[in-house]
Design a protein that fits this description.
Layout (H helix, E strand, L loop, with lengths): L1 H6 L9 E6 L3 E6 L15 E6 L6 E5 L3 E5 L8 E5 L1 E2 L2 E2 L7 E4 L3 E9 L5 E10 L19 E13 L2 E6 L5 E3 L15 E5 L4 E4 L49 E4 L5 E4 L5 E6 L10 E8 L2 E2 L23 E4 L4 E4 L12 E4 L9 E4 L4
Length: 368
């Protein structure tokens, strides 16, 4: 018995090990083939049955139900929303399954719509027919209000090859809808967020640019936006800085008036006036004076200054208190006042007789 024991063998086979006795070479040890698991459910939107419609070139098909999935990041909403797709007016999960009718070159698509924010609206449906292009939703951008979208997701294409049906599969999974990022300008004035370029799938923002005067003798100017410090991408340049308009001193001749409603007015010192030259007598045109200079709100308004001629004629002679001044046709003459009374103790009277060629004179009062 001991000898038989020593010549023999004993194997404790584990799970998945197969032992078979051989008449010529002892025992054969092998692994048990893994058993394939049957898939419990067909993929979403896959064809579960396909049958030919009698006496027609069309086929009827049943589809595995599928969903349109949207991830919602709004506070207070479900993180993921599911929208079951309908065939006609019936959900795809209806039993018995609703059928679709297929003809050669038909596309089977899931059609659904969204609002301008990209949220799915209504019930997605299966649509059969010619291939359709999607219209992407357009979120509100710039001054625009945005627009909703219409989406067509191809599931498969049905064709007949030598009378036999052929399916070209594009998708066999639930459809996950992606919403676009939505920006919003708040407040008034010009918008920094310009718009969304739907052709390039890109959001455009306006650039704030500082205008720098060029040329010769450029005066000092204030900065609208402060120049970048080093590289534009550095954090120190994240803030957009604007300069202010300032008056020169406490009593400026040019004032900066901010009405608080968005209008800044550059104005003068609210002082107006004129410089007028009065003639000694009217000129040939009857003018008695000439305006040489005018200013309004502290700024000169006359195009050019006038000419001042000192005196009238050849100039005024000198005289004393009580003297009489007259013009003899070419110059101004001073007729001195009488120094004393006349011989009769009377005064004098200024007379001018004998026409314009006779000069004025003092005549004794008692001789008139």
């Amino acid at each position: 018995m001991l000898g038989e024991y020593l010549k023999g063998n004993q194997i404790n086979a584990g799970k998945g090990i197969k032992i078979e006795n051989s008449s010529s070479s002892g025992s054969i040890i092998s692994a048990i083939p893994a058993r394939e698991k049957n898939q419990s459910q067909a993929p979403p939107f896959s064809v579960t049955t396909l049958r030919k419609i009698p006496e027609q070139s069309q086929y009827a098909a049943e589809l595995q139900e599928g969903w349109v999935i949207m991830r919602d990041t709004q506070n207070g909403s479900d993180a993921v929303k599911f929208y079951e797709v309908n065939i006609g007016s019936s959900p795809m999960s209806t039993r018995p399954r609703p059928e679709i009718t297929l003809s050669h070159d038909d596309f089977v698509m899931v059609k659904y719509t969204t609002d301008e924010e990209g949220h799915v609206t209504g019930t997605p449906i299966i649509e059969v027919g010619a291939e359709q292009d999607s219209v992407h939703h357009n979120p509100a951008s710039g001054a625009g209000t945005g627009s909703g979208g219409t989406y067509y997701v191809k599931i498969f294409k049905f064709t007949l090859s030598s009378g036999a049906p052929v399916l070209t599969v594009y998708q066999q999974s639930d459809i996950e809808h992606t919403r676009l990022w939505a920006g919003r300008n708040v407040g008034g004035a010009r918008y920094i967020h310009k718009d969304w370029d739907k052709d390039a799938d890109r959001y455009d923002f306006r650039t704030l640019e500082q205008f720098v005067p060029t040329g010769n003798n450029v005066p000092d100017y204030g900065k609208v936006i402060v120049d970048a410090v080093g590289d534009e991408d550095l954090d120190t340049n994240d803030a957009i800085k604007f300069s202010c308009l300032a008056e020169k001193d406490e009593s400026p001749q040019v004032n900066v008036n901010d009405d608080g409603a968005g209008t800044i007015t550059i104005e003068g010192n609210n002082k107006s006036g004129s410089l007028v030259w009065a003639y000694c007598e009217a000129d040939a045109q009857g003018n008695t004076q000439e305006t040489l200079l005018e200013w309004e709100d502290g700024l000169i308004t006359t195009q050019q200054g006038g000419t001042i001629t000192a005196g009238c004629g050849s100039g005024l002679p000198s005289g004393s208190s009580g003297d009489i001044l007259y013009y003899n046709g070419s110059t101004w003459v001073t007729l001195a006042k009488p120094a004393t009374t006349n011989a009769n103790g009377e005064g004098y009277v200024l007379t001018h007789v004998g026409g314009s060629t006779v000069a004025p004179d003092w005549t004794p009062y008692d001789s008139l």
